[in-house]
């Protein structure tokens, strides 16, 4: 792998990160601003949040619980859910309780980890950030369909990031075996989440199900995700995060909005940033690419490919 091919993914990722951080600073300095939204109580509705023990996920769980939701935290990054087998076991246990599911928040993730594999042999960014959520969502989809109603759809919210704008999806090398770059692998996993969300919405719409799927961008947030960056970046982050970065609570706001806002009732297949509908990268709207990624993901997770045809 050439030096240039190693450097380009990192350069793209840091450029988009800098652009978002600057946008956040300008937004913070702008006088006034919209008031914090007030959401309706959730009356014991059930939510599952992956990665809900810390960071953005923790504040998502905290706010949903305050609204009256019963929230189940799933920790993908812990050994109890580190494999596809364990994800299946969790879903079996959840189903055995005959519990409804009104909101699923796919939040957990890793960033810029060195080249390594999950227990199932998948590149870690692709396996944990994307495939785990793909499998979990598909295994819970029937429960979501049964829980949604015409007046109140069940919701799937998936956390991507602005790095998806510089992501490149390599369908012939999703595991980044040919040329590994942690920056490229991370951006690819975030692009895959956007493609997955749009395809999922297409399928549930065609099926007539009362389920919506949306993808959110939390912005540049001061969390533990940056533990794998180089020391120089850590120093810069330590010196500037208070000014340029969102707090984890601020980062959770769009996930919470997508989960409970009445404005999004029945609205799916959109990309949200700062609680606003935003255009994702052009390639994410490629329906053939969405379909091909879905089909390949089904093969990797060994589930039936209902997405290979229009329902």
TrEMBL record:
<keyword id="KW-0520">NAD</keyword>
<feature type="signal peptide">
    <location>
        <begin position="1"/>
        <end position="21"/>
    </location>
</feature>
<keyword id="KW-0560">Oxidoreductase</keyword>
<comment type="pathway">
    <text>Protein modification; protein glycosylation.</text>
</comment>
<comment type="similarity">
    <text>Belongs to the short-chain dehydrogenases/reductases (SDR) family.</text>
</comment>
<dbReference type="InterPro" id="IPR036291">
    <property type="entry name" value="NAD(P)-bd_dom_sf"/>
</dbReference>
<keyword id="KW-0551">Lipid droplet</keyword>
<keyword id="KW-0964">Secreted</keyword>
<dbReference type="InterPro" id="IPR002347">
    <property type="entry name" value="SDR_fam"/>
</dbReference>
<comment type="function">
    <text>Oxidoreductase that plays a key role in early steps of protein N-linked glycosylation by mediating two non-consecutive steps in dolichol biosynthesis. Acts both as a NAD(+)-dependent dehydrogenase and as a NADPH-dependent reductase during the conversion of polyprenol into dolichol. First catalyzes the NAD(+)-dependent dehydrogenation of polyprenol into polyprenal; polyprenal is then reduced into dolichal by SRD5A3. It then catalyzes the NADPH-dependent reduction of dolichal into dolichol. May also acts as a positive regulator of starvation-induced autophagy.</text>
</comment>
<dbReference type="GO" id="GO:0005576">
    <property type="term" value="C:extracellular region"/>
</dbReference>
<dbReference type="GO" id="GO:0016491">
    <property type="term" value="F:oxidoreductase activity"/>
</dbReference>
<dbReference type="GO" id="GO:0005811">
    <property type="term" value="C:lipid droplet"/>
</dbReference>
<protein>
    <recommendedName>
        <fullName>Polyprenol dehydrogenase</fullName>
        <ecNumber>1.1.1.441</ecNumber>
    </recommendedName>
</protein>
<keyword id="KW-0521">NADP</keyword>
<dbReference type="Pfam" id="PF00106">
    <property type="entry name" value="adh_short"/>
</dbReference>
<keyword id="KW-0732">Signal</keyword>
């Amino acid at each position: 792998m050439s030096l240039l091919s190693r450097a380009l993914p990192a350069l793209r990722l840091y450029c988009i990160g800098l652009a978002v951080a600057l946008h956040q600073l300008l937004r913070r300095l702008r006088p006034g601003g919209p008031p914090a939204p007030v959401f309706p109580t959730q009356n014991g509705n059930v939510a599952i949040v992956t990665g809900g023990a810390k960071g953005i996920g923790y504040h998502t769980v905290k706010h949903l619980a305050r609204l009256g939701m019963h929230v189940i935290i799933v920790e993908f990054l812990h050994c109890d859910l580190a494999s596809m087998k364990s994800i299946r076991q969790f879903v079996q246990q959840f189903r055995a309780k005959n519990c409804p599911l009104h909101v699923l928040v796919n939040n957990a993730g890793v960033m810029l980890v060195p080249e390594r594999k999950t227990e199932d042999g998948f590149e870690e960014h692709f396996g944990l950030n994307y495939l785990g959520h793909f499998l979990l969502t598909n295994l819970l989809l029937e429960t979501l369909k049964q829980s949604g109603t015409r007046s109140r759809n069940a919701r799937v919210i998936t956390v991507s990031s602005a790095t998806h704008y510089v992501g490149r999806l390599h369908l012939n090398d999703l595991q980044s075996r040919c040329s590994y770059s942690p920056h490229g692998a991370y951006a690819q996993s975030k692009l895959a989440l956007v493609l997955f969300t749009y395809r999922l919405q297409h399928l549930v719409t065609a099926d007539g199900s009362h389920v919506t799927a949306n993808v959110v961008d939390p912005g540049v947030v001061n969390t533990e995700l940056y533990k794998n960056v180089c020391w120089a970046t850590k120093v810069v982050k330590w010196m500037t995060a208070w000014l340029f970065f969102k707090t984890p609570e601020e980062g959770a706001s769009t996930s919470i909005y997508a989960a409970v806002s009445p404005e999004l009732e029945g609205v799916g297949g959109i990309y949200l940033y700062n609680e606003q509908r935003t255009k994702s990268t052009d390639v994410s709207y490629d329906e053939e690419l969405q379909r091909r990624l879905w089909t390949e993901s089904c093969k990797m997770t060994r589930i039936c490919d209902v997405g290979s045809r229009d329902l």
